[in-house]
Amino acid sequence: MPKRFRLTRRFPVAMTEDGFRRLKKFAAEAGLDEGEALSFLFENFDSVTDDEALTHRLRLFNAELEARKR
Prior knowledge:
By secondary structure, this protein is an all-alpha fold. The chain has one domain. It has helices spanning 17-30, 34-43, 45-48, 51-69. It is globular, with a radius of gyration of 14 Å.
């Protein structure tokens, strides 16, 4: 039986402009709104990410994070 889709959790999120543009593009291509797209990505996180690429990208992102906050 499919899970009921209820948007019960809302939280403030800080995103980069590039990240938000990519989220909007993905959502539009998938026919979803941004919240539905985020739910899909996190519910299926392991199957939509490549472990090696994720680790590498996360290291790069963390290295630049402080500079991005300024």
